Structures are given as C-alpha cells and as structure tokens.
Amino acid sequence: MKKYHFVSLKSTLALLVLSLLLTMFLSVPAAAAYGPDADPDPSGAYIKFTVTFKKPEDTPGNVAYMYRVFKTLNYVIEEGDMLEYDVRIDYDHDGLGAIDGAMPRTTHGVLRGVAGMEDQNGATIHTQADLSLYCYDQWYHRVLNLAITEEDAEDIPNGVSTVEKTLVNFQLGVHPMGSDEFDFTATILYDNIVITNNGEVKVVIFRDAEDFPTGNFADAGSNGFTPKWSIELMEFTPEDIAGFTAEVEAREQAAIEAAEKARLQKEAQEKAREEESIRAAEEKESREAAAEASREAAEAANEAANESGGNIGNIWPIFGIIGGVVLIVIVVVIIIGVKNSKKKSQ
Fold it and tell me: 53 burial class (0-12, 13-18, 19+ CB within 10 angstroms)?
C-alpha cells in the first residue's frame, strides 16, 4: 500500500511567505544592488545620447564641449552621498561618458569643477575624463563620491566642500580633447542613474521610461563644435539582451582563460625552479663525490708510500749483515793470500 504524506497548513503558509520574501528580494532594482564595475540589468529602458562633432576649418583650438540639462533636481547633498550610473560608448575617445550638473557656491558652479570627485577606478567626474578604457563597447558602472566634506576639502588642492550644497540639475555632457580635427559621431548610452547613501537610493534621476523627462534639454553651455545632437529614450530589445548576455559571457570566459593561463605559467615557473633545484643538488652531490674520491685516492697513495718506505727500512739491516760477512771474507782471503806469498818466497 502506498503511503501519502500531507503538508500541514502551517507549513504551506510558511512556504508561501518564504516565496513572497524571495520574490521581493529578487525584484529589488538593479541599481540599488550594484557593486563597482557591475554590468547593468539589460531590461527596461535606457538613454541614447548622440552627438556629432564637426569642427569648422577656420575655428581655432582643439577642445569641444556641450552640456544639456537632463533633469531639474534641487537636491541638497548629504554626507555619504554617492552618484551611480551605467554608461557605454561606441567611439574610442576621451571626453565621452561623463556627467555634470549645476552646483552653485562651488568651483565654477558645476560638478566638473569640484576637485576630489572620483569613481572606484580613480577616473575624475570631470567631463574631460577618458573613460574609454572602461566603457568603450561595454557597460561600465560608475560610483562617484558626491559628498566632499570640509575635512576632505582641506586635504585636496583647491578643494571645496559639497555637503549641504544644492545640486540644481543633472546634465549630460561631452568634452573631447586632444585632436585638432573633430569630424565624428559618438553615441553614449546611460542607465540606472541614481544618488545613493549607504546602499539606499535617495534620488532616481533615470532608471526606466517613466523617469525620462519631457523637456527640451536646455543648453547649459557649448562652444559650437557640436551642431547636431539628440537625446532619446530607447528600449532594450531581445537582441540587445542577447548581445549583453553574450558580452558578459565572453568577458567571463576571457577572465577564466586568463586565470588558467596565469595558473599554467605559475606551474611552469614552479616546475622550472624545482628542476633547477634538483639539477643544482645533483651537481653539488657530483662535486662532493668527486672530491671524496680524490681524497680517498690521495690517502691510498700515502698509505702505499708509507708501506713501501717501511719495507725498505726492514731490508737495510739484512743488507748490513751481508755486507759485513762479505767484508770479513774478503779480509780473510787477503790474509791467506799474503801468508801463501810469504811461504813461497822462503
């Protein structure tokens, strides 16, 4: 007989509550959970800012800039405030991808004039910053310190505090430099622009379609090098999402391959060091064996010489006795010979 197990009502309610909490956790907006350099959640909408740079031949200088007011804020900055946003550019150049905003009672009255505002990789908030290393053909999540305290300002050359000062508006800006000729079109994508404090989202500047303003994006300053521009609300398409997913997977695979290459290189270096150590030990052992063999040979030679010298010393007494006997015989022979000669003469 089969046994059936029934789940109690209490257990069912617990499971439902747990599922609801999990769903709420997973539905938290991506911008609030981002860490440095994280990829954006490819869903919803994003801002497409397109600018064409074309410098007239008779215009001196090599700096172009333009700022468009995206949204009015009038937000009073608090200690600990951070500005976070995702950005991607399609043209490898400096001066693209940064942001700006009006802030009275600070240097030049704009964010870009405030010293000390840098992101997690040390890139300044100034719109002349070169972000191409991080956001060219890939999404880059920036986290910038928006609140410069009085103590911070004292340690920064020309530093000024931004705490308790009002950020009047938020601007999209471009400020390319370093070229005597400007004749290109650049597209900058922005998403998840928020002000956070200790992980809490304080202000949403843009996160989805309902945050896109209906204004005319007033000119906040330009030098005339950028006659064409557009700011559009765009939706992520399935193709976009597939492309972003493939991009992330490619970077992850590249990271895995780089780690594997580094591991193999480390192993090869360790093996080479081990082999060198073994070779050095073998050479040392060979030298010691040769020295020992040489020492033993020298000792054997000394012993042989000593033994040879001892035997000769033992033979000399015998030679002495024999010599004495021979001498006596000779003397006796001589005496006999003399006596015989005397007899014959008589």
Answer: buried
Best CA proximity match to 74, nearest among 191, 203, 194, 211 = 203
Is the domain of 281 the same as that of 231?
A: no
Contact by Cβ (8 Å): 77, 170: no
Position 6, amino acid: F
- 172 and 66 belong to one structural domain: yes
Q: What would the two tokens of residue 275 be?
A: 């082999």
Q: How many secondary structure helices (H) and strands (E) does the chain include?
A: 5, 10
Domain that holds residue 96: 29-236
Look up the pTM and report it.
0.63
Element (H, E) at 307: helix 238-345
| CA dihedral (147, 172, 124, 131) positive or negative | positive
Which of residues 204 and 108 earns the better pLDDT score?
204
Structure confidence by residue, pLDDT tens digits, 230-266: 999 998 887 877 777 777 778 778 889 989 999 999 9
Cβ neighbours, 10 Å, residue 236: 17
Are both 231 and 241 inside the same structural domain? Answer: no
Condensed to tens digits (0 to 9), the pLDDT of residues 91-150 reads 888 999 999 999 988 778 899 988 889 999 999 999 999 999 999 998 999 999 999 999
Judge contact between 93 and 120, C-beta under 8 A.
no
Separation of alpha carbons 188 and 229, rounded Å: 11
Q: Assess whether 73 and 54 both reside in one domain.
A: yes
